[in-house]
C-alpha cells in the first residue's frame, strides 16, 4: 500500500540550499605538498625544514615589507609583537571593543591594561576621533583592528600615535590583501599581525604571521617565538630574550604556499560580489551595509557586515533565524568585548589590583563604557567570506531572502 505524502510536507522536509560554498578550497597541489613535507622528515624550522622560510619570504613580498615571521596562529603573532615591543605590567594599550577576543587576550597575558576606544557605527571600526579622549598616561601602544578585512582610518591612527609617541600594532588578522591608499595593511605600523585560521581567506587550519620593516623588532619577535633563541647562526643554546614556542610547522607552511596561488583570484570574486550585494541591500528598508573609509583602497572582505534596523521589520533574532532557515549563513557578530564577565572579574581581581592599585581599577571600571559599540552589537549582521564566493545570481538570492526574512 502506498502512502500519500502532501506537496507541503515534501517541501517542508527538503534541504534548504545554502549560500555557503565549500571551504576550504584545496586540490592536488596541497595534497602533493603535504606528502612531500611528510616524506622529507623535516617537519619544522628547528629540524631544518625549508618551507616555513619560503613562506615567510613570499608573504613578505606579497605584503611589501622586509621581514615576515611565521607563527603557529594569529594570537601568537600578536603575542610575539607585544613582547618584541616590551609591553607589560603597568602599560596600557588602546584597542577597539568590537573585535575577536584574541586582541584582548594577548594584552591580558602581558598584564597590560586594555583601554577601549568606542566604535564608529557606520564603519564597524575603531573611531579614531575618540583616541585622544581615551588616552591615558599609561598608554604605550595602540592596536587597531582592520575588522572584516576593511582598513581602519590609518591616517588618523598614525597621526595620533606619532603625536603621543606610541607604538602601533596593526591587527590585520582578517585582512589578507587589504589596502590603505594602495599599500597593504599591516605594513604601516611598527608591525602587523595576520591569522591563517580555518575560516580566514588565506588559511592552513591554524597559523599566523608578523610582518615589519624594523629589523630589530623582527629579531626580537623571532627570538621570542622560539624560546628566546636568537636568529643568528651558531647561537647554540644561548638565549637573547624570554620567550615561548610559537613556531609554525612545515605542514602549515606548505598548505599556505599552495593556498596563496588561489588568494588573488578568490579575492577578486569576493570584491565584485560584495560591491554588488552592498548595492542590493542598500535599497532594502532597514539594511545599512558597512561603509568604508575613503583611504581603504582594497577590502579583503573576510566579513560582509551590515546593520539591521528592527523598526523596519521583525526583531533581529527572528530575522537571523529566518535567514538561516533559508540557507543564508548569517550571524549576529560580536558582543561588547569591554563588558565580558571574565574581563570584569580580571580587572577587579588581585593581579590587576596589585599592579595598578584599587583606585585606578575602580576608575577603569567607571570609564569602561562604549555606548556606540553597544548599539552596533545590537544591530550588526554578518555574512562570512565564503558567502561571497558564489555567483552574481547567488547575491541576488541572498538579497531576496533578506527581504523575506525581514518580514517574518
Mean pLDDT: 93
The best one-word shape is globular
Low-confidence stretches: 1-16
- Structural class determined from secondary elements: alpha/beta
Strand order of the largest sheet: 1-11-10-7-6-2-3
At the fourth level of CATH, the homologous superfamily of the domain at 28-259 is Type I PLP-dependent aspartate aminotransferase-like (Major domain)
Short key terms for the protein model shown above:
disordered N terminus; alpha/beta; single chain; Aspartate Aminotransferase, domain 2; 3-stranded antiparallel sheet; 408 residues
Brief characterization of the structure:
The chain has helices at 7-13, 28-40, 51-63, 74-84, 101-109, 131-134, 154-164, 215-225, 250-282, 316-325, 341-348, 350-356, 358-367, 371-379, 392-406; strands spanning 67-71, 92-95, 113-116, 119-120, 125-126, 139-142, 167-171, 179-180, 183-184, 191-195, 208-212, 287-289, 303-308, 380-384. It has 408 residues and is of the alpha/beta class. Residues 1-16 have low confidence and may be disordered.
Amino acid at each position: 500500500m502506498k502512502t500519500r505524502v502532501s506537496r507541503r510536507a515534501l517541501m517542508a522536509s527538503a534541504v534548504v540550499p545554502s549560500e555557503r560554498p565549500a571551504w576550504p578550497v584545496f586540490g592536488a597541489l596541497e595534497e602533493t605538498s603535504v606528502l612531500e613535507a611528510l616524506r622529507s622528515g623535516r617537519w619544522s624550522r628547528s629540524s631544518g625544514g625549508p618551507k616555513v622560510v619560503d613562506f615567510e619570504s613570499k608573504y613578505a613580498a606579497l605584503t611589501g615589507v622586509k621581514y615576515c615571521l611565521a607563527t603557529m596562529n594569529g594570537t601568537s603573532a600578536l603575542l610575539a609583537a607585544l613582547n618584541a615591543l616590551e609591553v607589560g605590567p603597568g602599560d596600557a594599550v588602546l584597542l577597539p571593543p568590537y573585535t575577536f577576543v584574541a586582541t584582548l587576550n594577548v594584552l591580558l597575558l602581558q598584564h597590560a591594561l586594555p583601554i577601549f576606544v568606542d566604535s564608529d557605527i557606520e564603519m564597524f571600526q575603531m573611531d579614531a576621533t575618540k583616541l585622544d579622549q581615551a588616552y591615558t598616561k599609561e598608554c604605550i601602544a595602540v592596536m587597531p583592528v582592520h575588522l572584516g578585512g576593511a582598513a581602519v582610518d590609518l591616517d588618523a591612527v598614525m597621526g595620533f600615535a606619532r603625536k603621543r609617541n606610541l607604538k602601533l600594532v596593526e591587527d590585520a588578522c582578517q585582512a589578507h590583501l587589504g589596502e590603505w591608499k594602495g599599500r597593504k595593511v599591516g605594513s604601516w605600523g611598527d608591525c602587523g599581525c595576520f591569522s591563517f585560521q580555518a575560516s580566514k581567506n588565506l588559511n592552513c587550519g591554524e597559523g599566523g604571521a608578523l610582518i615589519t620593516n624594523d629589523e630589530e623588532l623582527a629579531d626580537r619577535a623571532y627570538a621570542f617565538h622560539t624560546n628566546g633563541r636568537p636568529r643568528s647562526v651558531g647561537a647554540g643554546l644561548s638565549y637573547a630574550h624570554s620567550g615561548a614556542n610559537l613556531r609554525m610547522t612545515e605542514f602549515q607552511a606548505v598548505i599556505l604556499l599552495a593556498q596563496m596561488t588561489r588568494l588573488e583570484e578568490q579575492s577578486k570574486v569576493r570584491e565584485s560580489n560584495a560591491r554588488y550585494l552592498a548595492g542590493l541591500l542598500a535599497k532594502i528598508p532597514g539594511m545599512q551595509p558597512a561603509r568604508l573609509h575613503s583611504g581603504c583602497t582594497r577590502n579583503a572582505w573576510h566579513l560582509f557586515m551590515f546593520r539591521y534596523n528592527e523598526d523596519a521589520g521583525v526583531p533581529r533574532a527572528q530575522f537571523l533565524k529566518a535567514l538561516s532557515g533559508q540557507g543564508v549563513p548569517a550571524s549576529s557578530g560580536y558582543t561588547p568585548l569591554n563588558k565580558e564577565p571574565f574581563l570584569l572579574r580580571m580587572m577587579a581581581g588581585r593581579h590587576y589590583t596589585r599592579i595598578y592599585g584599587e583606585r585606578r581599577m575602580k576608575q577603569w571600571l567607571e570609564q569602561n563604557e562604549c555606548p556606540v559599540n553597544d548599539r552596533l552589537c545590537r544591530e550588526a549582521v554578518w555574512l562570512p567570506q565564503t558567502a561571497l564566493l558564489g555567483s552574481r545570481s547567488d547575491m541576488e538570492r541572498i538579497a531576496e531572502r533578506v527581504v523575506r526574512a525581514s518580514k517574518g
